[in-house]
Amino acid sequence: MAEVKIRGISKAYSSGVPVLKGVDLDIHAGELFFLLGPSGCGKSTLLRILAGLVKPDTGSISFDGVDILSLPPEKRRAAMVFQNYALWPNMDVFENVAFGLRTAGVKGRELEDKVMEVLELVQLADFAKRSVPSLSGGQQQRIALARALAVDPALLLLDEPLSNLDARLRDAMRSEIRRICSLRNLTALYVTHDRQEALSMADRIGVMHHGLIREIDAPENLYNFPETRFCAEFLGDMNFLNGKISDGKISTAFGEFKLNGKNYPVCAAGIRPERIKIVEQDLPGSFEAILEERTFSGESCDWIFNANGERLAVRESAPAKRNTGGTYRLYFEPEFLLAVNSAELD
Ligand code: ADP
Ligand code: MG
Questions:
Q1: Residue closest by Cα to atom 14 of ligand 1
Q2: Which pTM value belongs to this model?
Q3: Angstrom distance (rounded) from CA 312 to CA 15
Q4: How distant, in Å, are the alpha carbons of 137, 252, 300, 301, 321 from that of 293?
Q5: Which of 13, 47, 193, 194 is the best mutation target for the ligand 1 pocket, counting ligand atoms within 8 Å of the beta carbon and taking the most?
Q6: How far is the CA of 159 from the centre of ligand 2 (A)?
Q7: How far is CA 85 from each of CA 54, 90, 311, 322, rounded to the nearest angstrom?
Q8: How far, in Å, is the centroid of ligand 2 from the Cα of 192?
Q9: 196 CA distance to ligand 1 centroid (A)?
Q10: Which ligand 1 atom sits closest to the C-alpha of 46?
Q11: How many Cα atoms within 13 Å fall on the side-chain side of residue 178?
């Protein structure tokens, strides 16, 4: 495991359009760090630069204080797991996993021990002699992970590794990857566009947009207290309120409320649907609203309320029976009404 420092990394491919625009990032030793962002924002390009498959135009990268950009890929000890597994179909499982070790000159008993150790880690020790095409997608992805782990990487890179798996398998693999990373105390950089994956697995998340990391924090903080409208919307549903914002307050059709957050020059006020409660008592700060719509989804229900002309989405888990057209009282804790920076990101 290594401490990774990325400074001022920029890249434009031949078209000249900047894909990375001066990325700075520190990944702590032993951390599972997620880069989360929409397709095309530059995530894979940054991973390829770390792996040595693409050269950046500017910037520096070090592992434990040692510059790695001058090193060829095989000397960097950065191992990559790809979305499409990238296994060799003509080699058996053992040989796929052994490949990097053989290249590094490991052989005999030591080679066998190392390969079997990582195959045990991914729970496929009995599959060593199997051919790759005879395995399921999930098993192939585990072999790809074992192959990356076999070389004892300073940095493990994972590029949307679960995108080709079905939902049930994906859930199982999420906890599996987390278990392995923490067991081996790996430093890992995991790239995805899937917010559930990032929120459920990451130690920290960096949210990326147009070639820059815009916000970095632990999942709970980033979800509950995002600073930008982009990040707030990318991580989940949010009500943005209409009304005049000044002096850290918003005046809406259903009352005036204090905002939690900075006074941004271009500011929006947002609250997540699950933070609005349907209450019985007339709490200070509560307000009346008429129930207009419901969308039931099993464990929760999304209600649409109308509060004096303002439409509000409210998410209730273990939902009670409620009547559309009825009048209810809504309430939220003031800390969850956020001021976010809603200036257009460049
Ligand atoms: P992400 O992984 O976030 O989807 P990528 O890093 O793959 O983003 O791509 C970022 C941008 O760079 C996209 O617009 C993509 O089309 C472009 N791009 C990626 N690879 C190449 C390449 N080899 N040559 C030219 N353009 C590329
Ligand atoms: Mg990608």
A1: 40
A2: 0.94
A3: 44
A4: 41, 21, 14, 10, 13
A5: 13
A6: 7
A7: 19, 14, 45, 48
A8: 8
A9: 23
A10: 6
A11: 15
Edge-to-edge strands of the sheet including 212-217? 78-81, 155-159, 188-192, 32-36, 204-209, 212-217
The structure tokens 């941004």 sit at 264
- Please state whether beta strands 32-36 and 204-209 pair in parallel, antiparallel, or not at all (unpaired): parallel
Q: How far, in Å, are 75, 101, 233 from residue 112 at the CA level?
A: 22, 10, 48
Pocket (CB within 6 angstroms of ligand 1): 13, 19, 37, 39-45
- Residue with CA closest to ligand 1 atom 22: 13
Q: Using the 8-state DSSP alphabet, how is residue 334 labeled? A: G
Per-residue pLDDT of the chain (346 residues), as tens digits, is 799 999 999 999 999 999 999 999 999 999 999 999 999 999 999 999 999 999 999 999 999 999 999 999 989 999 999 988 899 999 999 999 999 999 989 999 999 999 999 999 999 999 999 999 999 999 999 999 999 999 999 999 999 999 989 988 999 999 999 999 999 999 999 999 999 999 999 999 999 999 999 999 999 999 999 999 999 999 999 999 999 999 999 999 999 999 999 999 999 999 999 999 999 999 999 999 999 999 999 889 999 999 999 999 999 999 999 999 999 999 999 999 999 999 998 8
Direct distance between the N- and C-terminal alpha carbons of the chain, in angstroms, rounded to an integer: 34
DSSP H or E run through 138: helix 137-150
Q: How far is CA 69 from the centre of its chain?
A: 26
The residues placing their C-beta within 5 Å of ligand 2, an ion, are 44
Asked if 77 contacts 63 with a C-beta cutoff of 8 angstroms, the reply is yes
